[in-house]
Amino acid sequence: MIRLAKYLKPYILMILLSIILLFVQANADLALPDYLSKIVNNGIQQGGVENAAPQAIRQSQMDKLTLFMSAEDEELVLGNYVLVDQDSPDFATYVEEYPALADEPIYVLDDAEQAEVDKLNPIMGKALLVVSGIEQMMEDPSRVPEMGMGFDFDLSQLPPGTDLFALLEMLPDSQRPQITTAIDEGFAALGDSMINQMAVGAVKSEYEALGIDAGKLQTDYILRTGGLMLLISLLGGACMIAVGLLASRTAAGAARDIRQDVFKKVESFSSAEFNKFSTASLITRSTNDVTQVQRVIFMIMRMVFFAPIIGIGGVIRAIGKSPSMWWIIALAVLTLLGLVLLVFSIALPKFKIMQDLVDRLNLVTRENLSGMMVIRAFNKQEAEAVRFDEANRDLTDTSLFVARVMVTMMPVMMMLMNGLSVLIIWVGAHQVAESTIQVGDMMAFLQYAMQIVFAFLMMSMMFIFLPRAAVSGARIADVLETETVIDDPEEPKELKDPFTGRIEFRNVSFRYPGALDDVLHDITFTAEPGQTTAFIGSTGCGKSTVVNLIPRFYDVTEGAVYVDGTDVRQVRQHDLRDKIGYIPQQGLLFSGTIESNLRYADEDASEETLKESIDIAQAREFVFAKPEGLDAEISQGGTNVSGGQKQRLAIARALVKKPPIYIFDDSFSALDFKTDSALRRALQEKTGGSTVLIVTQRVATVKNADQIIVLDEGRIAGKGKHHELMKDCETYQEIAFSQLSEEELA
Fold first, then answer.
1. 222 with 47: CB under 8 angstroms?
2. Could you tell me the residue range of the domain that residue 147 belongs to?
């Protein structure tokens, strides 16, 4: 996959934008449990009251609270509250909100930052709890033992009706630190969060005394917080949709670019490179393998970037909610990592095997489809069915093994999640009972734990798909990084203008890549423009290899091939092949129409040129026999025309190009002798100025050639015209007498 990373460069901005959106989405998802915690803690349990520092408090009540504060705390509190009375300019505004203002002055919390409010909460909370406790004792002295604030009062020793707050106010300032110290010691076991929660009852009582509707306060808080949750959910959903769109476009675009480059690379392959990769494997690499890479790019953008943000953020927020339960998260993470590594180690070796088996299945399928006539002719349908079944079963068994490994992931993950939930509830319930954590915080911790598990689940899915995609990426990169044997020169020469088409072989020897021996030895000849040079010899003597060296399908091992005096290795392949009309033995046609196949040589060719080429190729009789004419359909591979018709259309296609060099690589093998003779006469008339090279095994085809080159085991056994070779070349004589009678050879 890393070797294909360059294909993501055009999409860097989209990737960065998706990461930003994923960060927003992750934070939105992480915020929801926190808001749920607030609804439970503040909205339900605390009646909509968030802080122990009330928004407003009566002056008389504030005076009581300050009795239990140190001088520094009192200064901090009074510095954040503003006294409002009937002389205040905003009296009319506040009296509507706090009706008790009409009877006595009140303190209103100034526009303090949340950080400042967090400082006030424990100070105000402790004081409110002490004042509330004392008020309850004054109403019912039997409640004294329940206070638990670090100091007790025995009201039985005071005269009935004594105002305890008035007595405390009369205490000298030197004794106030003792009181505040005792209060701090009494609340030391409770955290700030629990003090805040316990003080809410006193705050609600104060709000009721101010004339505030407590029920409306609770409803408003729940609706407000719920509305924020809804907006955050919508934001997260919008980010998720946007990321999906960006990931899809990036993955599809990168896959398109990879396929395009693979296709271009394969087009540049010489025959030597095609020997390294089978056709079935190249098809798999440009389809199935690219699809695997595309899927993983999408998943990386959608999950791999998202999962760490959720996982790390979930851990931080969960520990923030309940630091004492960190070990539960650690246990879950370690278990998940162990599971992922186990699955990874089991599944990884199977993915490369799967891709190789896909290659094998494609190979068997392709051979069966292309060789169907041969299979039927030899009654091998059952044997081929068995061969296909073996390849299919091997792939199926491997796929099922990997699928079973993946299937076990989900139930194990679900069991882990359920066990984790039970453990969190069990531990959390004990902590709630001990007043060290609130119910809403426990619920938020549970949700964060689930988010962490899902983050690891997403990463585990990536660990399943990434190895297979890595194998696919490596297979694609192997094609893209293949060094081609035949390349254009760094400083190419230009072919002469005007171009004549003279071809010269000088001491050419050739050996196939990886072979031990040469297949051509010291081949030297010259093919002149306006002449026909024919190559004849037994099967495997190197006839086709000779002509394949001209368009550089292979490069010579020794010697050189010259076209118009220029070494073919010193010119661009495109320029060289633009001068050549090549007709292979197997006339390959493309799906489309007859006209589209002919225009493959020259898209701008006139209709007269097309018809003339058809006439020269002796194809008029079947092309125009149908009413469709040039618009007649050609199926894939030309399977709806005969072998001879296919060859004639391939010859006509080369004639449309009107090149200065024609190479006929045994292109008349499927023609009858009458058609062969008529076609050669027409070629001689219409291509008189071109250099014509013909590879054939028929003596009748080369009888009238200007030069016949006889090959025997890769060497030139004879060179000359027909009558000269009949006198001097024994190899040519053997071939000639095996095909024609003496009268025909005369």
1. no
2. 51-212
H helices of 631-709, where?
643-657, 673-686, 699-702
Tell me which amino acid residue 391 is. Answer: A
Instruction: Tell me, yes or no, whether 304 and 208 share the same domain.
Output: no
CA distances from 60 to 79, 122, 331, 527 (A): 17, 20, 53, 120
Domain-located, residue 297: yes
Buried b (16+ CB within 10 A) or exposed e, 581-590: bbbbbebebe
Among 500-509, 682-691, 714-723, where is mean pLDDT lowest? 682-691
pTM of the model: 0.71
Give the whole-angstrom CA distance, residue 78 versus residue 66: 9
377-390 pLDDT tens trace: 788 888 888 988 99
Give the tens place of pLDDT for each residue, 309-357.
Answer: 888 888 888 888 778 788 888 888 788 778 777 877 777 777 778 877 8
Closest CA to 457 of 299, 351, 340, 347: 340
CATH (domain of 406) = 1.20.1560.10
Q: Which residues contact 510 (CB under 8 A, 6 or more apart)?
A: 518, 519, 520, 542, 545, 549, 554, 556, 557, 558
pLDDT of residue 239 exceeding 60, the answer is yes
**Cβ contact 445:436 at 8 Å:** no
- Enter the DSSP assignment of 483: P
Q: Are residues 405 and 274 in the same domain?
A: yes
Number of H helices and E strands in the chain, helices first, is 28, 15
